[in-house]
Design brief:
The protein has about 700 residues and is an alpha/beta fold. It folds into four domains: about 140 residues, Rossmann fold, CATH 3.40.50.2300; about 110 residues, 2-Layer Sandwich (Beta-Lactamase); about 160 residues, 2-Layer Sandwich (Alpha-Beta Plaits), CATH 3.30.70.270; about 250 residues, Alpha-Beta Barrel (TIM Barrel). Helices cover about 45% and strands about 25% of the residues. A hairpin with a 5-residue loop joins strand 12 and strand 13. Helix 12 runs antiparallel to helix 13 and helix 18 runs parallel beside helix 20. Bound molecules: ligand C2E and magnesium ion (MG) (2 copies). One magnesium ion binds next to loops. It is found in: Cell inner membrane. Its EC number is 3.1.4.52. It catalyses: 3',3'-c-di-GMP + H2O = 5'-phosphoguanylyl(3'->5')guanosine + H(+). Its main location: membrane.
Length: about 700
């Protein structure tokens, strides 16, 4: 590598001599830059490009600066570049002073021609590079030693302290400056923890034997202020490059602190950081242990898998900070519902698992689940806000439901999903058919994806009847899946799956277009139906393009809007009642009829119900079935409410003549049910339209004379 030398002298003869000797250097030429003034030199050094200067030769007598001030200015600008002065033969004192200030050496005038000049320059360049590397190495060592938690103390050959890192300063209570040159046994006073007898510092053994040593166990370090800590350490000799012993280094740490750290790390690995509850890994261990015990004692245990209902909604609307606090509060309530021998753990997100480990029967588990639901029902106050949350719980038991840790968790999880499906805020025991159903759902989902393209869906129609005249007023479209191998499948088996995998939106669009088109066809054939009713699922109803897809179905089919009735179940409307009002208003603006389906099952808020622009209330089948048991109290109440809200009331699921009689008697306008007709194919429905329904109404009409 060519070294770049900056020569600063006003003496052109000196410059020429140096140029010549450096050019002819036997180990390769130097590259010389020559300037005649200090100001020019400083200017050159300020330039970082094109090439860095490796060394400087400077005459201290320059036109714009004289003497040591010249050197000082230069050195201040370039402390990292080795500098040699060019001095007069009689300027020894000035040369010595310059070296004290940082110069690497000096060349005497009159000797510039010597072949030793290039060698001297190479030496100072190399030396400077080594010095720099050493400096960096030392800085790294000091930073490292001060960053570690172990204490490090160095001594000389006689055991006198010559180094302490920060941790050693803290542990001994001695500052490096105070400890310097103090005997190691003054800085580190060691005693035995049992006998309190002084313990010889292993540094002395190291210096004596020139070998590594460990500190005797049970050693206590007494700090400068008299406080104590149990320590563990090792000491080792230090040698120079020739292998001669030069001193020793001792490394030690506080055992209590180290234990605390180890324990903390073990705790962190097994606990959830938000709630401090055992995490999945610790839970697995505990379940496995509990299974082992239960097996030996021939006893039972139970696992509760709990998932908060609609927690995502709280997290999304109020922020993660509130969500986190709620989870912490839930964790506390869960813990208050179980015994200390039970385990409450967090699986992540809003999922918790409770292990009831000691001889818990299924009844105990049900009791605990009830206690948990009750405890969660009380209002939470987080950041001055009142929050309400419910949970769905699945329960599996050992040995009845599963024999392994994984199966117990899996089955409790499956049962939890069932609890969600049962309307949330409840608990369910695992049943083996749940597993079968979970598998079936997967199979159904796989087939559903192609069913639409294969044209496997059809609509059946069920007539709605005017309960006084017995005439068909309208039709409800009910989807069926005509599977090539499995036959006709009812919606209960595939609609929830289509909802879960998002296919429901496309399916719903198809149903709307199909039903509207069919209604228009009947109209064209001269059959006057008040409306065609289409069922709308939760996801469709909330989908941003739902209103547009209704508009589209009407446009495609040419069906007048008032001939379309949308049936939305009560629980869907109430889930986010505020938003429902807006969507319903948009639909109402299209001119379609709106019906609330399965009325009576969805915990309606009556104040919202009056805000919804509804045309029809469909009383849920369960109340019709119960008429004879309850004397029809609820049915009566709904009919009265519909009347005062100016809404038509339809009774679903009429199967028996007595039910019909009751409804007629209490002025229920319309009805639907197997008593009149099952849902039927398009052709059979057209037949019903043509021929009318031979229903008991005619008999009733005759009997009552209406
Ligand atoms: P839903 O809207 O309440 O429909 C009434 C259900 O009760 C229908 O079952 C019907 O066949 C049945 N039903 C009618 N009369 C009687 C009776 O007298 N006794 C008894 N026991 N049942 C009767 P289906 O067709 O199996 O439909 C079940 C549910 O699936 C529907 O309840 C509706 O919520 C949903 N669904 C049906 N078709 C569609 C659709 O195209 N889209 C959406 N999103 N959901 C649909
Ligand atoms: Mg319906
Ligand atoms: Mg219904």
């Amino acid at each position: 590598m060519v070294n770049h030398i900056l020569v600063i002298t006003a003496n052109s003869d000196d410059a020429a001599t140096l140029d010549k000797v450096l050019d002819r250097a036997h180990d390769g030429p130097f590259c010389i830059e020559w300037v005649t003034r200090l100001s020019l030199a400083l200017e050159r050094l300020r330039l970082k490009e094109p090439v860095a200067i490796d060394a400087i030769l400077i005459d201290l007598a320059l036109p714009d600066s004289q003497g040591l001030a010249t050197f000082s200015q230069l050195f201040a600008l370039a402390p990292g570049i080795p500098i040699m002065t060019l001095s007069e033969l009689d300027a020894d004192q000035q040369t010595a002073e310059a070296i004290r200030l940082g110069a690497q050496g000096s060349l005497s005038k009159g000797h510039f021609g010597s072949a030793l000049v290039p060698q001297a320059l190479r030496n100072i360049i190399r030396r400077k590079a080594v010095e720099e590397a050493l400096f960096v190495e030392k800085a790294r060592l000091i930073i490292t030693l001060n960053s570690i938690s172990d204490a490090v103390i160095g001594t000389d050959l006689h055991g006198n302290v010559d180094y302490l890192n920060s941790a050693a300063e803290q542990m001994t209570g001695w500052l490096q400056a105070d400890a310097q040159n103090q005997p190691i046994d003054s800085v580190m006073r060691l005693v035995n923890d049992q006998t309190r007898a002084p313990v010889t510092n292993p540094i002395f053994k190291v210096l004596q034997d020139d070998a590594c040593k460990l500190l005797a166990t049970g050693t206590i370090l007494i700090r400068r202020d008299g406080s104590e800590s149990a320590i563990e350490d090792s000491a080792a000799p230090i040698h120079d490059s020739a292998g001669h012993l030069k001193g020793a280094v001792m490394v030690f740490h506080d055992i209590a602190a180290a234990h605390a750290i180890t324990e903390k790390m073990a705790h962190q690995a097994q606990h959830d950081s938000l709630t401090n509850l055992p995490n999945r890994s610790l839970l697995n261990d505990r379940i496995t242990q509990a299974i082992g015990l239960a097996e030996r004692h021939n006893s039972e245990l139970a696992l509760l898998f709990l998932d908060l209902d609609n927690f995502k909604h709280i997290n999304d609307s109020l922020g993660h900070c509130i969500g986190d606090q709620l989870l912490q509060a839930v964790a506390l309530r869960l813990c208050s519902c179980v015994r200390s021998s039970d385990t409450v753990s967090r699986m992540g997100g809003d999922e918790f698992v409770v292990l009831l480990s000691q001889n818990h029967s299924a009844e105990d588990a049900a009791h605990t689940a009830e206690k948990i639901l009750e405890s969660l029902a009380a209002t939470f106050v987080i950041a001055q806000q009142q929050l309400f949350i419910t949970a769905s719980i699945g329960i599996s038991t050992y040995p009845n439901d599963a024999q392994t840790t994984q199966d117990l968790i899996k089955n409790a999880d499956t049962a939890m999903y069932q609890a969600k499906e049962e309307g949330r805020n409840n608990y369910q025991f695992f049943r083996s058919e749940m597993n079968r159903r979970a598998v079936e759902r997967q199979v159904i989902e796989a087939h559903l994806r192609t069913a639409m393209d294969n044209g496997e869906f059809i609509l059946h129609y069920q007539p709605k009847i005017d309960l006084h005249s017995g005439k068909i007023t309208s039709a409800e479209a009910l989807i069926r899946w005509q599977h090539p191998a499995w036959g006709l499948i009812l919606p209960a088996r595939f609609i929830p799956v289509a909802e879960a995998c998002g296919l429901i939106v496309a399916l719903g669009r198809w149903v709307l277009v199909q039903a509207c088109t069919q209604a228009k066809r009947w109209e064209n054939c001269g059959y006057q139906l008040d409306s065609i009713a289409v069922n709308i699922s939760a996801q469709e109803f909330r989908h941003k393009s739902f209103v547009a897809s209704v508009t589209n179905a009407l446009a495609v089919s040419g069906l007048p809007p008032h001939n379309l009735q949308l049936e939305i179940s009560e629980s869907v409307l109430m889930r986010d009642a505020e938003a429902s009002v807006t969507i319903l208003q948009q639909l109402k603006a299209l001119g379609v009829q709106l019906a609330v389906d399965d009325f009576g099952t969805g915990y309606s808020s009556l104040s919202y119900l009056s805000q919804f622009p509804l045309d029809v209330l469909k009383i849920d089948q369960s109340f019709i079935k119960d008429i004879h048991r309850t004397n029809g109290i609820i049915v009566n109440a709904v009919i009265a409410m519909g009347n005062s809200l100016k809404q038509r009331v339809i009774a679903e699921g009429i199967e028996e003549a007595v039910q019909l009689e009751f409804l007629r008697h209490h002025h229920c306008g319309e009805g639907q049910g197997f008593l009149f007709s099952h849902p039927v194919s398009v052709e059979r429905f057209a037949n019903l339209l043509r021929c009318g329904i031979s229903s008991p109404i005619n008999t009733l009409c005759q009997a009552t004379g209406t």
